[in-house]
Amino acid sequence: MRLVIVTGMSGAGKSSALKMLEDMGFYCVDNLPVPLVGKFAELIRGSGGDMTGAALGIDVRSGEGLSQLETTFAEWDQLHIPYEILFLDAGDETLIKRYKETRRAHPLAGRERLDRGIARERVKLEFLKERADYILDTSTLLTRELREELERIFVGQEKFSSLFVTVLSFGFKYGIPSDADLVFDVRFLPNPYYEEKLRDKTGNDPEVQEFVRRGRTADRFLEQLYGMIDFLLPYYVKEGKNQLVIAIGCTGGKHRSVTVANLLYERLESHREIGLKIEHRDIEKDKRTKG
């Protein structure tokens, strides 16, 4: 029986995560008063049954009682009671945007600006984040991707490092992505744009991929690129980094960058301990501009 404490920043997706865990067979309780948490764990441990586990949602709504969790965790550690902490996080800008979209009030903001309430919340939850077994940054995650990550952790029980990698293709003429951590320019590769029969196709099409890989320069570049990223990933994990955006750029973001991003994504799929997704930011912009 797995006991999971689901916590994190308000607006980061805790309620959604609890609903998803419930669909996976967990018995879920949200906002249980902290003094009852210990009793809840005792009841769950002795219940047996067909449940996959229990998930308990806790956040700043617990007020001053939140600090009592330190004592509860210390008791569980001493009694060797197994538990896991899932911490959901997101960037301040993302949280502010979500609050404005839903028009909800932040629990710690009162009559002040949202950013001040968020700053207070980060301080109050810092001890939970430091204890967390899993940290998911939902800033760029779709609902489907969050579910996939939770299934990977709590159903597939795969090794997890809290690092989510996004491989992103883009076009330089539309600007470098503001959230990119690593940017690579592949404009030195053969350009399908100048081949009329390939101009309207994309790096998702085999003909374009074959053209870009002509002469094996792209393959040699990919080997060097993958080797460097393979070297860096453990250090990013050790540093505690939660999000890594690898941006691959060409002129328009339609042919070369898409091809290389796809190939890199395929290579990184062997790292089952990380979350991984691919995005082609500008793949349709040339078509829309001309239209």
Could you characterize the architecture of this molecule?
By secondary structure, this protein is an alpha/beta fold. The protein has 2 domains: 2-154, P-loop containing nucleotide triphosphate hydrolases (Rossmann fold, 3-Layer(aba) Sandwich); 164-290, no CATH class. It has 11 helices and 9 strands. A 5-stranded parallel sheet has the order 2-3-1-4-5, sandwiched between helices. Strand 2 (26-30), helix 2 (37-45) and strand 3 form a beta-alpha-beta unit. It is elongated.
Give the structural class.
Answer: alpha/beta
Q: Name the beta content range.
A: 15-25%
Please name the fourth-level CATH homologous superfamily of the largest domain: P-loop containing nucleotide triphosphate hydrolases
The CATH topology of the largest domain corresponds to Rossmann fold
- Per CATH, which architecture of the largest domain? 3-Layer(aba) Sandwich
Structural features:
291 residues; alpha/beta; Rossmann fold; five-stranded parallel beta sheet; elongated
Short description, anyone?
The protein contains eleven helices and nine strands. With 291 residues, it is of the alpha/beta class.
SSE topology sketch:
Blueprint lengths: L1 E7 L5 H10 L2 E5 L6 H9 L7 E5 L11 H11 L4 E6 L2 H11 L11 H18 L2 E4 L5 H12 L9 E8 L10 E4 L10 H4 L6 H7 L4 H23 L3 E8 L5 H13 L6 E6 L4 H6 L1
Helix pairs in contact: 1-6, 9-10
